[in-house]
Amino acid sequence: MLAMTTMPTVSATRKPITPRNVVTNTLSWFDSTATPQQSDEILGPGVLHRSGARSLSRAAAPATDPACRTPYADLRLQNPSVMCTTIPRGGFCRNAAVLITPPTWGFSKCGVETMGIHVRLSGIRFESDATERAFRESFRNGGRLGRWVLLGSVASLTLGAPLMGPLLLGSPHTAYQAQIDWMWLIVAPMIAFGFVTLLRREWYAWSTPAMFAMSAAGILYLSRLTLSLTAAGQPQPLTALTLFTLLFCVLSRARVLAGLAMVALTLTVGAVTVQWATVPFHARDIFVFLFMCFIGITATTSVEMTARRAWLAREALIWTATYDGLSGVLVRGAFEEHMERVLRQATRTRTSLCLLCLDIDHFKQVNDQYGHLAGDEVIRCVGEELRVACQRPLDIAGRMGGDEFLVAFYDVDREQAVVLVERLQTRLRRLQVRDDQLAAISVTVSIGVTACVPDEQTKLRDLVNQADHLMYQAKRQGRDQYCCSSVVSPPHTTPSASEPHDDSEPGLRT
Fold first, then answer.
1. Who has the most CB within 10 Å: 103, 141, 242, 436?
2. Of the given ranges (40-44, 161-165, 319-323, 363-367), which has the lowest mean pLDDT?
3. Inter-helix orientation angle 283-322/256-276, to 10°
4. pLDDT of residue 116
5. Are 355 and 471 contained in the same domain?
6. Is 14 within the bounds of a domain?
7. Which residues pair with 397 in a beta bridge?
8. Model confidence pLDDT, tens digit, residues 423-471
9. From CA 25, how far away is CA 61, in angstroms rounded?
10. For residues 390 and 396, is the Cβ–Cβ distance under 8 A?
11. What is the distance, to the nearest Å, from the Cα of residue 299 to the centroid of all Cα atoms in its chain?
């Protein structure tokens, strides 16, 4: 297993630029002695799981947990509805975002490994428990249609056998009448059980054992029917026993172990059928029967492996389309989409909403003097700081392009916003990014702050424009400042008073 290296990737001619004194990954905003929580999980070669999943590892943490405090630790007393959630180091995703390199095969101590997928005697699984749980839920929920088809196939082939057999095969009615009790007492209840588990979402978790029990009952019914028809003078092929096995392995989307158990049951029932048959089966029938069981093993393994690769690729696309690969915050389109939802929520509940527009000071000079790798590292560190700040479900951060960021805080008024902005600027001033010559790069930002209680006429574009104008006003006041409507930050000493005025294009601001 290979760990993910620190971004950005540095060429061989330059040493990697590493942040110094950066304690912003997962530490508390107030308790510098808090124990950081490692949230990144390595899946395999080049595969990194971002464990800030919506339904997995972003569960609410107790408000008293010092490792999970937010910038709102003292403000949350006034807003008890605000939930604190852990933010992973390096970014998070809606489900289980991954970064994927081209698939490679290799052998580990316990089996074959590809793309972080371990093929072991105990089954196929991901190295990460959180990723494994997310995949299993997606894999199981994606098989609902196939399980309905499996249910209909078993019901029609078993309950309809007494009608279809004499009509299509000319089989004697007595052979089917001999198994009528088994069909209604064993097979029919299993079909009803499977039907019930597919009706409601909360019962769907029981559908896997229900499909297994239904298919097993169908195999036993076919075995007894084969023995009855053979005794009545109409020998049946042994391969008929593998019909429900193949349907289960292909349609149920059950795990590999369930498919192997079904194949093992089929082999056992086949051996008993061969032993009890009054007319011996040909060697050809036995060989075809064994080969069909092997096809069942291959099918259940291929279905799960293909589903795992497709799931990884889908999550990688979601991550790429949603999150900025350098800073780890939302890209512009995703931020606007999330922000529209937050704005509608604040409008419905008449809750205050705060929007911050941040721009890194003298960023163009950092690129010119220290190189673009140093500039990338500055953006990455600022992005991590913003992710730490946005720890509640409705607080979001996004990169608009270049060195400009937008941050939205839900249920934060103007007075609270001033406190948060001052703390954010203080923490950003403490960042010390060093280049390959160990020269310290100071990081400061200019921030425009707008806070309001939105109504039906409030538009996201208007909020962004207002915050952007306030940010430029803070820059004109000397940078490393914030401007919040009528509130202006106290003056701070800038790194250099002789630096040129910010007159560059957006995204290339100094």
1. 242
2. 40-44
3. 170
4. 54
5. yes
6. no
7. 407
8. 999 999 888 787 666 677 888 899 999 999 998 888 999 999 999 999 9
9. 17
10. yes
11. 26
The answer to the question of residue 107 being in a domain is no
Does residue 361 fall inside a structural domain?
A: yes
Which residues, listed in sequence order, are joined to residue 42 by a DSSP beta bridge?
48
Task: State the burial class of residue 123 (Cβ atoms within 10 Å of its Cβ: 0-12, 13-18, 19+).
Answer: middle
Strands 482-484, 445-452: pairing is: parallel
**Which amino acid would we find at residue 284?**
R
Q: Could you tell me if 92 and 39 lie in one domain?
A: yes
CB atoms within 10 A of CB 191: 22
Q: List, for residues 238-262, the tens digit of each pLDDT value.
A: 888 999 999 999 998 888 889 999 9
Tokens of 14: 């330059």
Closest residue by Cα to residue 379 from 445, 465, 477, 424? 445
279 and 215, same structural domain?
Answer: yes
338 shares its domain with 442: yes
- How many structural domains comprise the chain? 2
Tell me, yes or no, whether 331 and 401 share the same domain. yes
Strand partners, 442: 432
Domain membership of residue 56 (yes or no) is yes
**Same domain, residue pair 139 and 203:** yes
Region of 328 please: left (phi>0), alpha (psi -120 to 50) or beta. left
Q: How far is CA 433 from the centre of its chain?
A: 31
pLDDT tens-digit map of 270-295: 999 988 887 888 888 899 999 999 99
| Residues spanned by the domain of 337 | 19-97+323-488
Mean residue pLDDT across the chain: 73
Burial class (CB in 10 A: 0-12, 13-18, 19+), 284: exposed
> What is d(CA 191, CA 379) in angstroms, rounded to the nearest whole number?
58
Nearest of 118, 138, 115 to residue 127 by alpha carbon:
118
Indicate the residue among 263, 296, 320 that finishes a domain.
320
Q: How crowded is the C-beta side of 236, counted as CA atoms within 13 Å?
A: 26
Strands 117-120 and 111-114: antiparallel
pLDDT tens for each residue of 389-398:
888 888 999 9
Task: Tell me the HSE value of 407 on the side-chain side, using a 13 A CA sphere.
Answer: 25
Q: Are residues 146 and 93 in the same domain?
A: no
Structure tokens at 114: 């590809």
pLDDT over 60 (residue 35) = no
- Judged against a pLDDT cut of 60, whether residue 191 lies above it is answered with yes
Cis preceding-peptide flag for 280 (omega within 30 of 0): no
